[in-house]
């Protein structure tokens, strides 16, 4: 089997590389290192082919798709504030990039295409747990571009019969998550603060709950979907339960400080995973306690990550409140 992973040097992608190598696949990684790190692949450097390229621009990279079997499209720009500030960059990466990869897959007649979608596309849903039938309400450009990408994938499955599945990930965490200078996911923020012996910045009252899903469960879902015969189908991928931010803090530190609640953020994320359980027989395996222990055991990974405090967070999220705070 020959598999391509776009964004394979990133958080989820690098874990997927590990699993596919264990399955005996030939693995090709396409990455521009905008968020991924070569260090994530150092341990398998001699076992994969790594191609540095920009997927938003058709180029020589399309040749890698010839005779490929599975394609996992994980490459994307993430985070809320940068997408508000630079919607053009996000559109090129997450929409144009997805279009170009789909065209490469179509030309190469690949046997399976897996798209990494985002639960952020649900926005603030009406029902919890939230099923795949819920209305799409993206609140910011990142979520919108991921949604448009998913629409492209499903349309290519419908019109061009590309065997494609989209997986909507909920609050992924784990080792190798991003350590970039962008204010983003709570785990990275908290881990850098813990390392620096600084207070963990709790948004609002900390009672909001999240469907924290460990990265190896995400990767297992991707491979399970690739091994199936499903196409033109969307699946939620979550942990099957929710955990409050306060509970997460309990597992990490007792040194905390509270910062203002932000507009456009749901009080709860909670995936209804009935469809993937029923149709693919997939189950999440890693509890929040086990996952946090794994992350803390590798906490040195975040030693060079920025350490955020209430003032720097307020500055970094100014545009968040400016654009998402109005009705």
Provide a concise account of the structure shown.
The chain is an alpha/beta fold and 327 residues long. The chain folds into two domains: 2-122 and 130-170 and 214-237, NAD(P)-binding Rossmann-like Domain (Rossmann fold); 173-210 and 240-324, UDP-galactose 4-epimerase, domain 1, CATH 3.90.25.10. It has eleven helices and 13 strands.
Helices and strands, with pairings:
Blueprint: E1 2-6, H1 11-22, E2 26-31, E3 49-52, E4 70-73, H2 80-85, H3 87-108, E5 112-118, H4 141-159, E6 164-169, E7 172-173, H5 186-195, E8 200-203, E9 209-210, E10 213-214, H6 215-227, E11 233-237, E12 243-244, H7 245-252, E13 256-259, H8 274-280, H9 288-297, H10 310-316, H11 318-324
Parallel strand pairs: 1-2, 1-4, 2-3, 4-5, 5-6, 6-11, 7-10, 8-13
Antiparallel strand pairs: 9-12
Helix pairs in contact: 1-6, 3-4
The best one-word shape is globular
How far is the N terminus from the C terminus? 50 Å
CATH topology of the largest domain: Rossmann fold
Percent helix among the residues? 25-40%
Description:
With 327 residues, the chain is an alpha/beta fold. The protein folds into two domains: 2-122 and 130-170 and 214-237, NAD(P)-binding Rossmann-like Domain (Rossmann fold, 3-Layer(aba) Sandwich), CATH 3.40.50; 173-210 and 240-324, UDP-galactose 4-epimerase, domain 1 (Alpha-Beta Complex), CATH 3.90.25. The chain contains eleven helices and 13 strands. The protein has helices at residues 11-22, 80-85, 87-108, 141-159, 186-195, 215-227, 245-252, 274-280, 288-297, 310-316, 318-324; strands spanning 2-6, 26-31, 49-52, 70-73, 112-118, 164-169, 172-173, 200-203, 209-210, 213-214, 233-237, 243-244, 256-259. A seven-stranded parallel sheet has the order 3-2-1-4-5-6-11, with helices on both faces. The chain has a two-stranded parallel sheet with strand order 7-10. It has a two-stranded parallel ribbon with strand order 8-13. The longest helix is centred in the first third of the chain and has 22 residues, at 87-108.
């Amino acid at each position: 089997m020959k598999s391509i992973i776009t964004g394979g040097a990133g958080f989820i992608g690098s874990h997927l590389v590990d699993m596919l190598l264990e399955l005996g696949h030939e693995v090709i990684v396409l990455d521009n290192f905008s968020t991924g790190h070569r260090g994530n692949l150092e341990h398998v450097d001699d076992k994969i082919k790594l191609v540095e390229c920009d997927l938003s621009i058709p180029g020589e990279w399309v040749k890698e798709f010839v005779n490929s079997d599975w394609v996992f499209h994980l490459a994307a720009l993430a985070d809320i504030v940068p997408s508000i500030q630079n919607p053009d960059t996000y559109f090129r990466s997450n929409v144009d990039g997805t279009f170009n990869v789909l065209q490469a897959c179509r030309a190469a007649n690949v046997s399976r295409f897996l798209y990494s979608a985002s639960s952020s596309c649900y926005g603030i849903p009406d029902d919890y747990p939230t099923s795949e039938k819920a209305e799409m309400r993206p609140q910011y450009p990142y979520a919108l571009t991921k949604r448009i990408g998913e629409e492209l994938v499903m349309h290519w499955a419908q019109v061009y019969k590309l065997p494609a599945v989209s997986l909507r990930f909920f609050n992924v965490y784990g080792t190798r998550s991003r350590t970039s200078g962008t204010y983003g996911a709570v785990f990275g923020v908290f881990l850098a603060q813990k390392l620096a012996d600084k207070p963990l910045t709790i948004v609002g009252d900390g009672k909001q709950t999240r469907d924290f899903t460990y990265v190896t469960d995400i990767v297992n879902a991707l491979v399970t979907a690739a091994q199936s015969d499903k196409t033109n189908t969307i699946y939620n991928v979550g942990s099957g339960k929710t955990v409050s931010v306060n509970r997460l803090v309990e597992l990490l530190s007792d040194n905390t400080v509270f910062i203002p609640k932000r507009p456009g953020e749901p009080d709860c994320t909670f995936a209804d995973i009935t469809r993937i359980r029923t149709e693919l027989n997939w189950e999440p395996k890693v509890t929040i306690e086990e996952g946090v222990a794994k992350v803390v055991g590798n906490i040195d990974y975040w030693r060079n990550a920025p350490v955020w405090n209430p003032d720097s967070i307020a500055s970094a999220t100014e545009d968040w409140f400016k654009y998402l705070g109005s009705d």
